[in-house]
Design brief:
single chain, about 80 residues, alpha+beta, YefM-like fold
Length: about 80
């Protein structure tokens, strides 16, 4: 998808246009309606999707004794008891 913006708008909203380009969009910058430049993402530099925290909520159960699991076996490995 590409959009054409005039130079004044491009100067005013440059950081927004760069963010859009980083997400994969192409922006054409025009002067008096004549296309002059193309702002587009670098190859391989498209922004990654944000990670969603909690997307497995309710699907995984952590045991109550998780932080103490295998304490005896670990102690035996280090203490030799």
């Amino acid at each position: 998808m590409s959009e054409t913006v005039n130079i004044h708008e491009a100067k005013t909203h440059f950081s927004r246009l760069v963010e859009r380009a980083a997400k994969g969009e192409t922006v054409i910058i025009a002067k008096a309606g004549k296309p002059m430049a193309r702002l587009m993402p670098l190859e391989g530099a498209v922004a990654k999707k944000k990670r969603r925290f909690g997307f497995l909520a309710g699907q995984i159960k952590v045991p109550e004794d998780f932080d103490r699991m295998f304490d005896d076996e670990i102690a035996e490995m280090f203490d030799g008891k």
